[in-house]
Amino acid sequence: MNSTMLVIFFCFSSNLFTQTINIYGKKTQNKEEIISIDRNLHESLNIYPEIDMYTQGDQGIAQPSLNGLGANSITTILDGIKLNDFSDINNSSQLQFINNSALESLTYSKNHLSSSSFGNSLELALKDETSLNLLYGSNNTNESSLNFSSNDWFDFNFHVSRHYSDGISQADVKNPESDSFENINFFTKASKTIDSLTPYIKFYLIDGKQELDSYDFMTQRPIDSNQSTQYQNLISSLGLKFQKKKSRSLDLSYTINSLERSADNFESESRSKNLNLDLKFNIHPFFNIKSNLQYIQNKIKVSNITYNENIFGFSFLNTLNLKDFLISPFIKIQESNITQIPFGLSVHHNFSKEVSSTLVLAKETNQASLYQKQGGFIDITGNLITVGNPNIKGEKLSKIDWEFSYQKEHSKLAITPFYYWLEDKIFFNSTTFKYLNQEKSKHFGANLSLSSYLFYSYFNLNYRFLKIANNNPLFIKNSPEHKLHLNIKQKVNKFIFNTQLEFKDSIQSFSGNILGSYLLMHFNTTFKISKHLHLDINLHNIFDKKYQDVEFYNTKGFSTYASISFYP
To answer: Contact at 8 Å (CB) between 436 and 427?
Structure first.
């Protein structure tokens, strides 16, 4: 029987320095940073020390994980619309089918109102410009994209892109094999402001096709079969926004999200209907209110078996400005099959213009996916195998999160120690063929971010230390203990040079084997031929390092990519 789950925790914001960090718990990469890293969204997300990306081969399912919490620990939001696939076993999203050429910015946030994954979200903002881009590179990789933007009679944005690669996923290091990958993005939206009212419409198509080796759960090894997979996500949204200056706004939208996935021996369909209302009122230093109300109908069909779920959610955030303190109490109510009252407290203080500190004590909940609660499949003999568990509990996270920051005009240092206590972690038991709750696990560590302008160059260092203390043999150490990303950017006349170092410590695979640590080096050059014409050259994995993120699947070696962009 469904009941109501009440989540209360407190979040704080403070204005911080640098082009990549805006407020506490919120980090943004802009368009230039995305391009300088790679055209692969996987590579772009690795700059965040908190986020680990996992893929099955180079172009396999690309899922973000937060500090060892699992692939369902981040809610993915594209232009305000949630992409998480509730028919997927982890309620996650397949980011490899979104091209970087469509994106204006990537923002990682800890306190998004509509987030359903421990309050963490990854927001993808689409470009608002007119441009044409052509890319070609290693592994027969080619991409073409067109962006168009106009605000003459009404605001209109359009994007279409196609990406193709032979890929380099390998079933075994002794048996190299190239697998093809192709995807198409078609995004468009239009709006018209009349006085204080803005009606809008959005339409998105994410279409992907890839060949990957299938997997044998009995031998825990890939099968050299070139399994063909299809992915098609169709989203349409209709909305109306009311805004009175910058102090009051109301945004009402209705969104339909349909997704079809198929492989050689697997098919799934999902359909979500979402009625969403966002409110914002800034009327007093003590009353800066944001609120989100949503009603969601989820329906999935896996192997001709249909499951349904209705969700009601309400979120409320009020920011209080108390001189040197900025306090934002947050309340979230969501329908669930369990009853609990998490709570939290956070205190932010500006000691001076250069020094600030934030302490967060919070307890949050991440609900099980619809597939984990009700899912099942039909085996080759025609029998129904039920893997879902209607009694499965949501994952509960208790955390201590502290940030200390020191900033000058051209530099900033931020250190964020954290301690996580995760209860009822969801995992799949291969013995019982059921989704179950693991007892408890502890995570602790620290993130460090250092940004500085020195000798006409911009330095950005991100480092994370993570220790997972758990004696349960079912728990897999799939997040590295040490992770580092260094970016050095220098501008010389019309050239912009980017050098990147990426280090990842060894991890334990699903079979218990250890995958070794690695250090990679990448280089990017942007040449602004003119105001309208830019040339980019990317060198990936310069020293041709062989490494694995997933056992038995090598990732790409030395690769080169060149692109030319035209801005009329």
So the answer is: yes
Long-range contacts of residues 278-282, Cβ cutoff 8 Å, at least 24 apart: 278/113, 278/249, 278/250, 278/251, 278/252, 279/249, 279/250, 279/251, 280/248, 280/249, 280/250, 281/247, 281/248, 282/246, 282/247, 282/248
Q: Which residues neighbour 337 within 8 Å (Cβ) at sequence distance 6 or greater?
A: 1, 2, 3, 373, 390, 391
Stated length of the chain: 568
SS3 annotation, 115-165: CCECCCEEEEEECCCCEEEEEEECCCEEEEEEEEEECCCCEEEEEEEEEEE
Q: Compute the distance between CA of residue 530 and CA of residue 568 in angstroms, rounded to an integer.
A: 11
Neighbours of 242 (CB within 10 A): 14
Measuring CA to CA, which residue among 14, 57, 3 is closest to residue 355? Answer: 14
Closest CA to 222 of 508, 510, 445, 481: 510
| Burial 422-449, CB ≥16 within 10 A → b, else e | bbbbbeeeeeeeebbbbeebebbbbbbb
21-60 confidence digits (pLDDT tens)? 233 457 777 776 766 665 667 777 877 888 887 765 444 5
- Residue type for position 515: L
Element (H, E) at 371: helix 370-374
Cα separation, 283 vs 88, in Å, equals 42
* Phi–psi pair at 101, nearest 5 degrees: -65, -15
Query: Contact 415/401 with Cβ under 8 angstroms?
Result: no
How far out from the chain centre does Cα 552 lie? 25
Give the residue among 55, 73, 77 at the shortest CA–CA distance from 65. Answer: 73
Write the DSSP symbol of residue 174.
Answer: T
Give the pairing type, strands 26-30 and 21-23: antiparallel
The reported pTM is 0.85
* CB-count exposure of residue 23 (10 Å: 0-12, 13-18, 19+): middle
pLDDT tens digit string along 276-313? Answer: 999 988 877 778 888 889 898 988 887 778 888 888 88
Contact indicator for 54, 60 with CB cutoff of 8 Å:
no
Contact 266, 385 (CB under 8 A): no
Backbone phi and psi for residue 529, each to the nearest 5 degrees, phi listed first: -60, -40
Neighbours of 505 (CB within 10 A): 17
Which value, in Å, is the radius of gyration of the alpha carbons in the chain? Answer: 23
